[in-house]
Design goal:
CATH topology: Spore Coat Polysaccharide Biosynthesis Protein SpsA, Chain A
Largest sheet: 7 strands, mixed
CATH superfamily: Spore Coat Polysaccharide Biosynthesis Protein SpsA, Chain A
Order of helices and strands: EEEHEHEHEHEEEEHHEH
Number of domains: 1
Low-confidence stretches: none
Oligomer: single chain
Strand content: 15-25%
Number of strands: 11
CATH class: Alpha Beta
Shape: globular
Radius of gyration: 17 Å
Helix content: 25-40%
Number of helices: 7
CATH architecture: Alpha-Beta Complex
Mean pLDDT: 94
């Protein structure tokens, strides 16, 4: 169950909530958000290969970044599709002879090598594993007209993150067979009728979607550097 491990870094979004700034090229502690992600995956000992998926408008910028840094594990930089799941599929097609696929958002710059390694260890036991953290707030299910319908038990609710780690053949099959819109790759595997295990993620592993997220990431990064 060992085998070659490939990572797909998905960074083809449009950054529509960033006020005109491309989130993956925004600076965080003096380095681009995306560069921080790639540095971590390059340094992670369990990763053999990295495919970077970008929007077509960012391909040249991404290639210039890669050529200026030491990322020998980056074997391909390709453009994505209309939906996130289309972009992931393009990345999966370019992995070479991998038994395992690690899928990660290019806008989660504070991912740690340990988070990747623990996800792979869990997936080797179950076939599919995703990082997640327990929700901190009470969640309400609300009708379309704004009336509370249900209050789920909080201890059963988790916020899903990336990395998400899968047997390559399983996640590729999911991307071939599931064509309706989904919010993440784990959902596609679930719709095949396969179980997906969660493992403990990190509240610091935030996704940069808005300028406020970027500011919070700066605070977290400074605190980590002090510690």
């Amino acid at each position: 169950m060992r085998g070659r491990v490939g990572a797909v870094i998905v960074a083809a979004g449009r950054s529509q909530r960033m006020g005109g700034v491309d989130k993956v090229f925004a600076l965080l502690g003096g380095r681009a958000v995306l560069a921080r992600v790639l540095d971590t995956f390059q340094e992670c000992s369990v990763i053999d290969e990295i495919v970077l998926v970008l929007g077509e408008e960012n391909l040249e910028r991404g290639r210039e970044m890669a050529s200026s840094r030491c990322w020998p594990k980056v074997t391909s930089i390709c453009h994505g599709g209309r939906r996130r799941q289309d972009s992931v599929k393009e990345g999966l097609k370019r992995l070479r002879d991998c038994q395992w696929a690690v899928i990660h958002d290019g806008a989660r710059p504070l991912v740690a090598p340990d988070l990747i390694e623990r996800g792979l260890a869990e997936a080797r036991e179950s076939g599919a594993a995703v990082a997640a953290v327990p929700v901190k707030d009470t969640i309400k299910r609300v009708s379309r007209d704004g009336v509370v319908c249900q209050t789920p038990e909080r201890d059963t609710l988790w916020t899903i993150q990336t990395p998400q780690v899968f047997l390559f053949d399983l996640i590729f099959q999911a991307h071939e067979e599931i064509t309706e819109d989904v919010s993440d790759d784990a959902t596609m595997v679930e719709r095949l009728g396969r179980g997906v295990r969660i493992y403990r993620g990190s509240y610091e592993n935030i996704k940069v979607t808005t300028p406020e997220d970027l500011a919070l990431a700066e605070v977290i990064l400074r605190r980590k550097e002090v510690l």
